């Protein structure tokens, strides 16, 4: 009679227990793998390589219970294997001795070459030794060594595969952190260079601004001296004429009239100088913008050729501003006169206005305006326009495209608008006309 061989598992409960143990092992391993693979967590909260290696060793020991284990990190400069962590603590010397023996017997080289886990016997036949590299596809980062009992210890199903995943994820994370550190250092160095370049550009820009400012002051001084010298010549000449007229018993009235006219021009020039110096508003009044524009148009239309068409689209009684009427009349007259002179063979000037609101939390804008409600007055012509160089000099004193020493005009305009807490912009292109926008705070 043939002998009956026992079934591998005679007890159904034993089989279920083994299956549950396997499932627990797999779930635990997957949890460890996912935890090590959460690279974003390490990016948000940087972790040192030694701490990362120690965490990997702890995770491995939760999957497989080793008598002792250690991870030897590869020195990336010398390629030496250096002990990084040991579990439990205190066995570093014993594990170091066994590790040296494994190196001498060629087991370490074997495991590194295979790049997979191998199990060998210790030289004293007391343990089974698990050797497993911790490597990425690019290079080997470390090697894991774990001591298992010689007998009576069964590795859970899937535990070796889980151990491999933990080590690979740890290697990938370690490499990614190194690259991150490298990128952060390079970014910091690049940012430092950018800051240095920006500082240098700002310094050069400040020097250029000061140079242009000095040029403008020199032009201003020369222009004012020229204007006053001409006026004084006229005054002195008329004084001489008066003296001669008195001696010849003639009426000096004509000479007095000429002197009065010259004095008036010098008074106007002095007023423009004060405006250019951005003085305060002398006599602020609340007035509708269309009233100011109409008064300026009366003066300009008397000097405007019939071929120039001026269209005003300002609504009556809509926008009121609090300004010095005399100064603002100078602003509008200067802008409109420039627009007329740009229309060499006739053309069109369009005048319009709208409301602009600057919110307190508004993003940065080229307009140097405080939060609030503003009138945006636009004067647009379809004349010859200006190139970029001319636009950059348009607010310089005594600058003109016609002849030198013309006057303060747009420089005074700039000073007056700024003194009223406003802003002025000029957009122009050769052959396509010019658009001037004046921004002034709306009256409450």
Instruction: Provide the CATH top-level class of the largest domain.
Output: Alpha Beta
Number of domains: 2
CATH-defined fold name of the largest domain = Beta-Lactamase
Which stretches of 5+ consecutive residues score pLDDT under 50?
Answer: 1-7
> What does the average pLDDT come to?
79
CATH architecture of the largest domain: 2-Layer Sandwich
Rg to the nearest angstrom? 45 Å
Helical content stands at 40-55%
How much of the polypeptide forms β-strand, as a percent range?
15-25%
Number of helices: 11
E-strand count: 12
CATH homologous superfamily classification of the largest domain: GAF domain
Overview of the molecule:
- This protein is an alpha+beta fold and 444 residues long.
- Helices cover 51% and strands 20% of the residues.
- It contains 11 helices and 12 strands.
- The protein has a 5-stranded antiparallel β-sheet with strand order 2-1-5-4-3.
- Strand 1 and strand 2 (81-87) form a beta hairpin.
- The radius of gyration is 45 Å and the shape is rod-shaped.
- It starts with 11 loop residues before the first helix and ends with a strand.
In brief:
With 444 residues, the chain is of the alpha+beta class.
List the helices and strands and how they pair.
Blueprint: H1 12-36, H2 39-44, H3 49-63, E1 68-74, E2 81-87, H4 92-104, H5 107-114, E3 118-121, E4 127-135, E5 140-149, H6 159-247, H7 253-276, E6 284-288, H8 289-301, E7 308-312, E8 320-324, H9 325-342, E9 347-358, E10 372-381, H10 388-393, H11 409-419, E11 423-428, E12 434-441
């Amino acid at each position: 009679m043939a002998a009956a061989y026992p079934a591998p598992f005679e007890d159904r409960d034993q089989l279920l227990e083994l299956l549950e143990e396997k499932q627990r092992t797999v779930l635990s391993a997957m949890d460890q793998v996912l935890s090590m693979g959460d690279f974003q967590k390490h990016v948000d909260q940087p972790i040192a390589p030694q701490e990362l290696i120690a965490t990997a060793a702890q995770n491995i020991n939760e999957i497989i219970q080793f008598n002792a284990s250690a991870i030897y990190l590869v020195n990336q400069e010398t390629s030496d294997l250096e002990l990084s962590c040991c579990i439990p603590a205190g066995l570093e010397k014993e594990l170091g001795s066994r590790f040296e023996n494994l190196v001498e017997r060629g087991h370490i080289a074997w495991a590194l070459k295979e790049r997979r886990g191998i199990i060998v016997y210790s030289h004293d036949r007391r343990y089974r030794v698990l050797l497993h590299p911790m490597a990425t596809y690019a290079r080997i980062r470390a090697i894991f060594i774990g001591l298992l009992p010689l007998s009576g210890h069964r590795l859970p199903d899937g535990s070796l595969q889980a151990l491999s995943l933990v080590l690979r994820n740890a290697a990938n994370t370690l490499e990614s952190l190194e690259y991150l550190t490298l990128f952060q250092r390079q970014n910091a160095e690049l940012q430092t260079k950018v800051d240095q370049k920006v500082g240098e550009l700002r310094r050069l820009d400040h020097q250029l601004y000061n140079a242009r400012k000095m040029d403008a002051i020199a032009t201003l001084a020369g222009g004012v001296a020229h204007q006053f010298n001409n006026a004084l010549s006229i005054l002195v000449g008329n004084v001489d004429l008066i003296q001669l007229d008195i001696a010849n018993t003639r009426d000096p009235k004509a000479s007095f009239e000429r002197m009065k006219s010259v004095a008036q021009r010098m008074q106007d020039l002095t007023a423009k100088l004060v405006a250019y110096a951005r003085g305060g508003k002398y006599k602020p009044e609340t007035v509708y913008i269309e009233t100011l524009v109409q008064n300026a148009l009366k003066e300009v239309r008397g000097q405007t050729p019939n071929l120039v068409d001026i269209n005003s689209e300002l609504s009556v009684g809509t926008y009121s501003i609090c300004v010095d009427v005399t100064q603002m009349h100078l602003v509008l007259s200067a802008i409109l006169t420039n627009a007329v002179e740009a229309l060499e063979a006739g053309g069109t000037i369009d005048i319009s206005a709208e409301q602009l609101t600057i919110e307190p939390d508004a993003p940065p804008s080229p307009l140097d305006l405080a939060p609030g409600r503003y009138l945006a007055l636009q004067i647009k012509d379809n004349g010859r326009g200006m190139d970029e160089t001319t636009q950059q000099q348009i607010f310089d004193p005594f600058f003109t495209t016609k002849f030198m020493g013309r006057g303060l005009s747009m420089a005074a305009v700039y000073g007056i608008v700024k003194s009223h807490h406003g802003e002025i912009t000029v957009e122009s292109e050769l052959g396509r006309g010019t658009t001037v926008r004046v921004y002034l705070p709306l009256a409450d």
